Amino acid sequence: MSVTTLLTKIALERLGYVVPTARLQTEVLPKMEALAERSGYGSLSLFLQAISQMRDTHPHFVSFVDILTINETSFFRQQRQLAMIATNAQRMYQQLKRPIRIWCAACSSGEEAYSLLFLLHEKGVPCEIIGTDIHQPSLRIAKRGTGYPKYRTRNMTPTQLQRFVTVQEQTADVRLEFRDQIQFQYHNLIAHPPPRLGRLSQKQAWDLIVCRNVFIYFSAEQVCTVVRQMQGVLSEQGELWLGVNDTVQGYQSFLERKSQTGFKYFVSKLGDKVNASSISKEKDAQSKDTVWQSVSGAIQREAWQEAEQLLETLYRHPKSDKGRVLTVQGLLRLRQHDFSQAQRQLRKASIHARREPSIPYFLGVIAHKQRQGTIAKTHFTESIQRDVQFWPAQFLLGQYAYKEGQHTVCTAHLSQAKNRLHHPMSNFFQSIYPHLVESVHNNPKDVELLIEHYLSQLD
């Protein structure tokens, strides 16, 4: 695979970003080659292969994103559209009599989110705003709210400058009283479910989602997927605002396009919002399924760091199966022979899935690998107490009994294992990627031969 193909593949799969051809040869590739050299890789190809398995938070991946993204922004950029968004927010507030909830997606270094806050402050509209982005350096600037280049305030009126920012010779700072009024957090539009504000319940959602000048870099299919997820977390009166150059295809079944003074925005179709709660649950399920599919893909590609990052995202999801997530995290650690961390994750998992036999089984496998036979047997015994038909634990207990000369106990365990050997395992067990860990559960045919051998020796 050529470096150009590999680079564009990573950008599309990890970020949903379609690298413009015009930038690829003249700007992106030369910068990537320089970054690969600075990072100590022998070639751009090796660097990109490493990047494909790195966490989003790894410094090299952050630099990779930095080269790809165009963080051109300013306060009150495209201010006529911002003013229209603020006017609609004021109308919502008059109807709802509560703070307006706003998600500024792909907010870069925060100028757009702050601009909306300033406009709503002028109108006397209370609001709760989250700004998200994939570019960590930009998010750090947004959270700090200081050190903006002075030229980025060029669209602000003298009154706004005086009221909302402190201007130095070359830089501008958001005034202290406004800096803590917005939550800024990392978010990948492709890989992560939509964010929640504080502890929003399922029935609460975003009144305004502002996602401007982002989708021009996404594929049409990914735009539709992301927009569908956004629609799922809009409130009943909620509006989705895109940039003037952003286009969406295939939205007609769930969104209605509106136009106001030349600017387009979208609202959910009434038929698609009849039961907002059930839709929200459906979207949550879809977003979880999407991330689990990404976890499967990462594990299949052996992109372990990516898998761990996705699992962290799943763990934060309010409706995630935490027992399953923690178990997979534990197995990933066990695969890396990080036994103490694997034990910690599996013990947490056991709290969430108290009846699942596979969790104490894997704790037993850890003890077995560390030659802690007594502890291993305790865990395997707990496993069959949870489910007497869980054959991997039955077999290993039988094996221990054989070595200890406990023939009656050995026969009982091995007979139980033999009877269940070719029966399908539980859905939970099949969903936690048990092949990550090398143990008897991966080799039922070999286990069958060993059972026959042990039983023949006992006759």
From the structure above, extract its key features.
7-stranded mixed beta sheet, Rossmann fold, alpha/beta, single chain, 459 residues, 4 domains, elongated
Topology (SSEs and partners):
Layout: H1 3-15, H2 21-38, H3 44-51, H4 59-68, H5 79-96, E1 100-104, H6 111-122, E2 127-133, H7 136-144, E3 148-149, H8 158-164, E4 165-167, E5 171-174, H9 176-179, E6 182-186, E7 206-211, H10 220-232, E8 234-242, E9 255-260, E10 263-268, H11 276-300, H12 304-316, H13 322-335, H14 339-352, H15 358-369, H16 373-386, H17 391-403, H18 407-420, H19 427-431, H20 444-458
Parallel strand pairs: 1-2, 1-7, 2-6, 7-8
Antiparallel strand pairs: 3-5, 4-5, 8-10, 9-10
Helix pairs in contact: 1-3, 2-3, 2-4, 5-6, 11-12, 12-13, 13-14, 14-15, 15-16, 16-17, 17-18, 18-20
Structural notes for this entry:
The protein is α/β, with parallel strands linked by helices and 459 residues long. It has four domains: 3-68, no CATH class; 79-274, Rossmann fold (3-Layer(aba) Sandwich), CATH 3.40.50.150; 277-319; 321-458, Serine Threonine Protein Phosphatase 5, Tetratricopeptide repeat (Alpha Horseshoe), CATH 1.25.40. It has helices spanning 3-15, 21-38, 44-51, 59-68, 79-96, 111-122, 136-144, 158-164, 176-179, 220-232, 276-300, 304-316, 322-335, 339-352, 358-369, 373-386, 391-403, 407-420, 427-431, 444-458, and strands at residues 100-104, 127-133, 148-149, 165-167, 171-174, 182-186, 206-211, 234-242, 255-260, 263-268. The strands form two sheets. The chain has a seven-stranded mixed β-sheet, with helices on both faces. A three-stranded antiparallel β-sheet has the order 3-5-4. α2 (21-38) packs antiparallel against α4 (59-68), α13 (322-335) runs antiparallel to α14 and α16 packs antiparallel against α17. Mean pLDDT is 84; it is low at 199-203 and 271-283.
